[in-house]
Amino acid sequence: MVFNSTNKATQSFMQRLCSLLIIAVFISGCTGTRQIRSTTVSLKGTYKNDFLIGTAISRQQVAGKDPVAVKLIPRQFNTVTPENIMKAEELTSSWGKYDFSWADKFIDYARVNHLQVNGHTLIWHSQMPAYARHIQDVDSFRAFFTAHIRKVAGRYNGRVRSWDVVNEALNEDGTLRRTPFLNKLGGNYIADAFKLANEVAPNTDLYYNDYNNERPEKRAGCIAVIKKIQQAGVRIDGVGIQGHWHVGKVPFSDIEESILQYAALGIKVAITELDIEVLPRNFTGAEVSQRMKMDANSNPYVNSLPDTVQRQIADDYGKLFKIFLKHKDKISRVTFWGVHDGQSWLNDWPIPGRTNYPLLFDRNGNPKPAFYSVIAAKNK
Ligand code: XIL
């Protein structure tokens, strides 16, 4: 009797346990679908025969302090760009003194994780060290310019696949920006920078990089810059279209036309800083010194992104990758400006402290509909 009743109790306990297990497996099967797919489907794998797929990475990520990114970077990407680590102000804070400790760690991180490297950036008017901005004397300024390129590009020769040699030298109307480089060195400074980079990094691809250079006016200026470099007999291998675009307003036909026109110059095209802004903005582009005032409507999606916007950004990304695929013979690389939404610079620019959703992975590292739409662009 005792045995029987114990047996019955055990049986019913086992039955309940089994049902619970079945329910648990079912639930985890449903909720885990995306998680499982995210570990097996990768951007770099999907596009392996087309172009490199990159991301910009931060110091925190190089240091392994962003667990979400630590998993995603080597799984999803095959090339990295330092978001800030190699900018002049990060490398040198006083004349002649350079601290390469983080840049070396970044290069090492890339090597260990089998990632190629795009160096960003040698000559740029933003994020310059204060001492260099304040040099008045032309000869001293040229000495800084020359030494900087030689030192940085020379140090990493052989370990960097491509450099953004000059960044953002153009105004929106296609004329040259009045930067300290133009003001002190004159209009040939861009070709000079490429010449110097070529001397110390002969096997590295050399790129000119800008935002809005898919727009007709700025594109014309960009083409003029590239032709001037070529006519000076100096090597230039490619042009970077940064790709800081806005949801529902991505200029698809300008982008396609630009890929064609740049490729016709005999150079490669890279999309170097791709993200799609979803928050209100009263200007386009990516001039880092530009700011906007916060108001009641500036940060509308603090808790989550509405489905309509989620679908629109997925749609935009899908269409973009269709264009990139159509011209894959002209495109060397597509790099996202950040790994996941939580890292994006667009949370803090042009207004600090907003909640933005411009990338393919959410703050927990889960793939968004936009991720699946980029994958589908290849498979459909
Ligand atoms: C941004 C970084 O993402 C930010 O962390 C930093 O505060 C400012 O610069 N164009 C470029 C990039 O070429 O270097 C900029 O990166 C974004 C615009």
Task: Summarize this structure as a short list of keywords or feature phrases.
380 residues, disordered N terminus, globular, 15 helices, TIM Barrel, single chain, 8-stranded parallel beta barrel, alpha/beta
Number of helices: 15
Helix-and-strand structural type: alpha/beta
Terminal CA distance:
66 Å
CATH domain class: Alpha Beta
Overall pLDDT level: 92
Question: Domains counted in the coordinates: how many?
Answer: 1
CATH superfamily: Glycosidases
Unreliable stretches: 1-14, 17-38
Q: What do we call the CATH topology? A: TIM Barrel
* Approximate strand percentage: 5-15%
Shape: globular
Please tell me about this protein's structure.
The chain is of the alpha/beta class and about 375 residues long. The protein has one domain: TIM Barrel, CATH 3.20.20. It is built from 15 helices and nine strands. The chain has helices at about 1-30, 35-40, 45, 60, 65-75, 90, 100-110, 130-135, 140-155, 180-185, 190-200, 215-230, 250-265, 305-325, 370-380; strands at about 50-55, 80, 115-125, 160-165, 205-210, 240, 245, 270-275, 330-335. Helix 9 (about 140-155) runs parallel beside helix 11 and helix 14 runs parallel beside helix 15 (about 370-380). The relative contact order is 0.12. The model is unreliable at about 1-15 and about 15-40 (pLDDT under 50). The site of (3S,4R)-3-hydroxy-2-oxopiperidin-4-yl beta-D-xylopyranoside has 8 residues, from loops.
